[in-house]
Amino acid sequence: MFKKLEKHKQKIWQRGLWRTRCVTQSLPDAKVQINNEKYINFCSSDYLGLSNHPKIIKAMQSCLQNAGFGSSSSPLLSGYSVECKELEKTFCHILGFEDALVFPSGYQANIGILSSLLTRDSIALCDRLCHASLLDGILLSRSKIKRFRHNDSRHAQELMKSHPPDLFITESVFSMEGDIAPIDELSSLCRSSHTPFLMDDAHGFGVLGENGLGAVSYWKLKPDILTIPFGKALGMSGAIVLAKKDTISLILQHCRSYRYSTAISPVICAGALESLDVILNEKWRLEKLKKLIEYFNQYALEYDLHMVSQDITPIRSIHIGDSIKTLAIAKYLKNMGIYVAAIRPPTVPKNTSRLRISLVCAHQKSDIQYLVKSIRDALQ
Ligand SMILES: Cc1ncc(COP(=O)(O)O)c(C=O)c1O
User: Is 35 exposed, middle or buried (0-12, 13-18, 19+ CB in 10 A)?
Assistant: First the structure.
């Protein structure tokens, strides 16, 4: 029936690009159970350990008892809950935005806002390594797309001159590289050319800035549109989009992924609200995470591992190149009790397969020592 796909199957296999999934059970202390075996988990984006925080669980249980789990409807019908409104208000207040929209996932948020704000006649300028949800949103809008070399503000400037864009798009921390974008330079380019600036702060929120408030506090600036998915440091799921009132109301008129989908559960909104409170009040989590990242960077250098970036972010990628070799190393690590993602094309460009290591505040230095030594052994 799916003849074309069947034909591709063998190629995908041979190139080491075949995808599988495994059933996981998350355990305390950054461990995960798979098929009755326990592993140190280096694949989780729960950077601050909030996905099983007792205070957050309590807030969610209390909401569950009052409101039930399901929102029962689109947010444009009866699904826009009190908890969701409260979450939007709180984010707007803390980050200084006029208005917001909460989506059931970051993917839905990004495809929705881009396909709403861009038209067939628009030009979108984005970083070459932007997340699939941003690229898919641009594709859905059918606008022209121009991509500048990763984090290269000079190339961005050239493209801005030759193809004045209607929207500029980038991320604060790149999801597969773990490097921080040169936002000061990029936002000044946007300001001087009056180009609206959309930033995805998925991996910056909770991690960047003094209070973990992400890009806005780290760079002391506000992009025109900010997306914050909740599935990373907030330990939840869903996402918020923040912007001026006019922009949000425009999105509301056109956004199909918002309108034609059941609204986020009030329980998740209550959880995200409590996560925000924990981020602001339990600063030791971010402090510990930063120390672990610094330790990892230093230790990996000593062991001569080729890191994609030295920035202080929890995503630490080790460049391998070949997909089959990357898979073999991930398998070796699994045999050693370490769970690490082998990231391969099309998630990353050809010949840039890598081990993507996510550090979380529940890791110990000894976990990092064991990981780095094991990778070194696997490479020898
Ligand atoms: C940069 C970035 N944006 C958006 C998303 C999508 O968010 P979600 O997982 O909530 O769909 C992700 C990750 O999954 C991401 O890394």
Answer: exposed
